[in-house]
Design brief:
There is one protein chain. The protein is an alpha/beta fold. 42% of the residues lie in helices and 12% in strands. The protein is built from 14 helices and 10 strands. The protein has an 8-stranded parallel β-barrel, surrounded by 4 helices. α3 links the parallel β5 and β6. α5 runs parallel beside α6, α9 (279-290) packs antiparallel against α10 and α13 (348-361) packs antiparallel against α14.
Length: 385
């Protein structure tokens, strides 16, 4: 049937949904790149909560989605910003998520890395000692779970640090304590405005020097870096300066195909929020890369960039709404409800365009289900069909 989607000026436009999905393969491990999908959490739609309440999570659906990602050969990056850390999911909820997901990963034989931050600290001014202690508490939880640690950028550290030396001190302390190599995460202010000036400077060249100094002082404790600055050339320049054996995991949801494909001087691995909705297709693309078929990899992944740029358009931090919306349309959860009420963070025209782009890519395992759910959403918003 024809759907009538919102159009400018309060009108509608016709759209003919596709009837057949793509059918990517499952199971075969990825070999040429290490690929993590940052995964969303599924809210409990029956919980009587307010936007200020602790997150109520549907654990069965949340863990089922992680098994879906592992079945396609992807790793799971857990309790990251895609899981609404700092935007609906507090530390208590994140700690429970880490424990449950790490146990599920062990049972499923899946790869998992988990975010370590300082979000248990109450609002207000904090000392560097308090920041260090908060990081240590979370690092202990992740390491006890058996997962790899991702040292996330900290709002509290950004507020407390007086300059680059404070970052060198805090990160040096944590890296000396880590029992296994960690991933360092540089999250740009487009994802979280409170991180403006991270690494001690708003000048990205100066910040990059400090970031590299942290790595150079402890290369044996750094598995890799995740760069989320949405600047492809800066990422390329940075990865060429990394010590041997330290990976670059792209977090660039605008330019990931070219960064993962790489060039004759190297490539990026991946740790991406967009690989939540793109999981099966992304894994199939990397399997082509595993065989040396770069053209085939680009042919599959390049057409997804328009959807990714749409989901991550400013204000970028609300990309999670589109990610969960697509998971609902794809049948991975029974509802479009998010912790913190974040399902309201994007407009109906934005969601309708996300549906159209995802449907065009064949991302929905059951296109008829996605069409039916989109029709119901349109009706709730008063768009006649």
């Amino acid at each position: 049937m024809t759907l009538h989607l919102p159009a400018p000026g309060g009108t509608t436009r016709p759209y003919e949904p596709r009837t057949e999905p793509l059918s990517p393969t499952t199971g075969a491990p990825l070999t040429s790149r290490v690929v993590f999908s940052a995964a969303h959490v599924v809210a409990d739609p029956y919980a009587d909560v307010s936007p200020d309440s602790p997150a109520a999570v549907d654990w069965d659906a949340t863990l089922a989605f992680r098994r879906h990602l592992w079945s396609h050969g992807l790793g799971v990056a857990e309790a990251m910003d895609t899981a609404q850390r700092g935007m609906g999911l507090d530390w208590a909820g994140a700690a429970e998520l880490i424990r449950r997901s790490a146990a599920e990963a062990k049972a499923a034989g899946g790869r998992i890395a988990c975010g370590v931050g300082t979000d248990q600290l109450p609002p207000g001014d904090r000392t560097l000692d308090e920041v260090r202690a908060a990081y240590e508490e979370q690092l202990a939880v992740v390491e006890a779970s058996g997962a790899q640690a991702i040292l996330m950028a900290s709002r509290a550290l950004c507020a407390a640090a007086k300059g680059p030396d404070d970052y060198l001190d805090v990160y040096g302390h944590l890296l000396r304590q880590a029992t296994e190599p960690v991933v360092l995460h540089w999250l740009g202010p487009m994802f979280d405005p409170a991180l403006e000036g991270y690494w001690g400077s708003a000048d990205l060249d100066a910040a990059t020097r400090t970031f590299l100094d942290v790595i150079a002082a402890h290369p044996d404790k750094v598995d890799g870096i995740k760069v989320s600055l949405l600047d492809a050339q800066r990422e390329i320049d940075l990865r060429r300066k990394l010590p041997h054996g330290v990976r670059c995991y792209t977090g660039d949801d605008f330019n990931y195909p070219e960064l993962i494909a790489g060039d004759d001087r190297g490539f990026s691995h991946a740790l991406l929020g967009i690989f939540d909705p793109l999981g099966p297709l992304a894994a199939e693309a990397v399997r082509r890369l595993d065989t040396g078929d770069t053209a085939g990899f680009r042919a599959l992944l390049d057409p997804t960039v328009e959807l990714s740029r749409h989901l991550f358009q400013a204000p970028t931090r609300y990309y999670k709404t589109g990610v969960v919306f697509l998971a609902w349309l794809a049948g991975h959860q029974s509802h479009f409800t998010m912790v913190g009420g974040l399902q309201s963070a994007r407009s109906l025209p934005h969601l309708a365009r996300a549906y159209e782009l995802a449907d065009g890519l064949g991302l929905f395992p059951d296109p008829a289900l996605a069409e039916s759910r989109m029709k119901h959403l349109l009706s709730v918003h008063g768009v006649a069909q």
